[in-house]
Here is the input.
Amino acid sequence: MRFDTALRAYGTKRVEEIEQADLLVGIPCYNNEKTIAHVIQMVSHGLFHHYKGLRSVIMVADGGSTDDTREVAKEFEIKPWQEKIVSIYRGPAGKGSAFRSVFEAAKRLRVKACVVVDSDLRSITSDWIRYLLEPILEKGYHFVSPVYSRYKYDGTITNNIVYNLTRALYGLRIRQPIGGDFAFSGDLAAYYMDQDVWDTDVARYGIDIWMTTNAITNNFKICQSNLGVKIHDAKDPAEALGPMFRQVVHTLFVLMEQNENAWKEVRGSRTVPMFGLRDFLEPDPIKVDLGRLVTEYKTGFRQFKGLYRDLFSPECFEELKNCARKAKTKFVMPVETWVMVLYEIAGTFHRWKHNRTQLVNLVTPLYLGRVASFINRTRNMTSSQAEEIVEEQAQVFEEKKDYLLEVWDKER
Here is the structure.
């Protein structure tokens, strides 16, 4: 079913009542009753302290929460001169549809700038609003991507896949392409709103990387802002990140196909301007189950060994086989092998027109193995030191880009 609007009648009526605003802060949410009040409070304080002279709207875009998220959001009192919209969005279930409703409101209100922040944030401060909005309002940027001080085992999909591929493909060192907390100019929000993607998987998942990639490939002016420590409802990669891995990787590969002409000629990478905080703060640790990660890898390799032999080059397959023999504390997958895995799977994805979801599913155990490898490599490092390992890995992705082109253009 296609939806011409992501705003329900109540949301549309509130936008019409407000008529026009300077700033819009969107908070996509789903079952976040424990954190939503804190997030709204910090957003309200930030708008008050830094942008009191501008007309501001806080919009809670809910996915049909079954807890009291909407009730808590409605009851929380913001500053008298700020406006609030709490509404269930229309469209396919997912963060993308929530963003669509925010972009639609931003376009109708003709805002100068739009911010979106996650609803499970525990570390958000009122200064986040300034760090995100200042580059747009005062420096002429269109897209602000976040940078966080994250614990070394948080953000494993970003550290091992998304940062590396985005950097190698498009030549920009955007550290958190799927960070969750972004800012956009009013023009960029309207551009996103007008794209015909809202009945696709972008509306269900993959919205963050879709926005980042579109900002790059359409030459919008991009920067980053250091927000400090990010504490949210972090997930053990062994426990919950398999589905997210499949969703993000599928979206990444689809975007590679859509933007083939944009990335094929790119070599090397350049830094992206950074604003916000200057320091890297050491975040609190999160627990990870190393044994489960290695077990998942070994079980997957045993089950799919025949398919892996067909999918991967002999060199890559042999190294994956060697990894399956290693004890959990000795488990290390060479970064070159991991680069080959992703590049070869991207090439296969490009050639296959059917069973693509199953193809990405097959790689999930290998991703969990790569995370286990990263844990072993950085066991005695601080998060700041582990960041250097992430940078080393990203450099290898760049250096091996000719190999990506080779497997991408391989005969079907």
About this structure: The domain at 9-276 is CATH 3.90.550.10 (Spore Coat Polysaccharide Biosynthesis Protein SpsA; Chain A). DSSP finds 17 helices and eight strands in the chain. The beta strands are 23-29, 56-62, 83-88, 113-116, 143-149, 182-185, 222-229, 274-276.
